[in-house]
Amino acid sequence: MRKMFYQLIFLLIFQLNAFTQSFFEGTWQGVIEQSGMTNPKPLAFWIEFNIEESTNVINGTSRNEIPFTDNYALKSFQGKVKSANQLFFEEVMLGNEKNEGNNFWCLINAELTYNDSTGYLKGRFTSKDCRAYSGEITLFKSKYQMSQGDTISKYHSWVTNFQNDLKRGWNAYYVRAKDMRDFEIKPVYFDHDKAVVSDEFNAYLKQMVSVVQSHSDLRIKIIGHTDSNGSNNYNIQLSEKRANRVEKILEGYGMPPDRVIIEYRGETDPIAANNTALGKKLNRRVDFEFD
């Protein structure tokens, strides 16, 4: 029995190590920002982690690029995975470079921690050969290949876009994509002949704003509905009031008006039969669609 217990523990540790290695393995991209600068200009930073399965030792190549120039430096590094979400690396040798100006490529070392909530690998760096050079690195898992030559890895507008994402408090693109996939769209319901949104929907609507704001190309369509009580013209007006009321709440939570589309259909698009009280209750609603 004890033998089986130890075998199980060993298997769990092995699987954890395998997950850690496969997760960190590959290319990451992001920015290096130096501390103590009035108007810091970040460096584009790329790094490829190769992890030795049996020891968790890391080696590979990193790349600095000065945004919107052809200047770059390739460096070799070594390090170690310290835990399931933490690693250390140290650049040890300068390789190929292109340097037009007075730039000096410093070798750095850093301890980085992965945050499950944000999707970023982040931490402080220092330098042994440039003692005044220190600051912060923020990385995300890349979909692209790191260039090994004079060609830039990716057009540098991504650096500006990434900095804007960080200023907005946005998570990494794959975390945002998961948040959107996991977000459950559901109606907001109304009392008979009313356009007042119950407080019970506030948290849901606030989360909706967060999802839409974190995708620059995403809009939300708000569609107002009613039950069959009243005339068609009256119900069109009531469904418009309901849609507009929801829009105001979303804007109050920070939704830009140009990210919202309004439709109102009155009683013409029921989700249930209007011959029961429950059916009418389900039809007094605002629906949503991502656009």
Automatic annotation (TrEMBL):
Residues 1-18 form the signal peptide. It is found in: Cell outer membrane. One of its GO terms (cellular component) is cell outer membrane. Keywords: Cell outer membrane, Membrane, Signal. CDD domains: OmpA_C-like. It comes from the Bacteria. The keyword Lipid biosynthesis does not apply. Residues 181-291 form the OmpA-like domain. Gene3D superfamilies: OmpA-like domain. Pfam families: OmpA. This is OmpA-like domain-containing protein. It comes from Putridiphycobacter roseus.
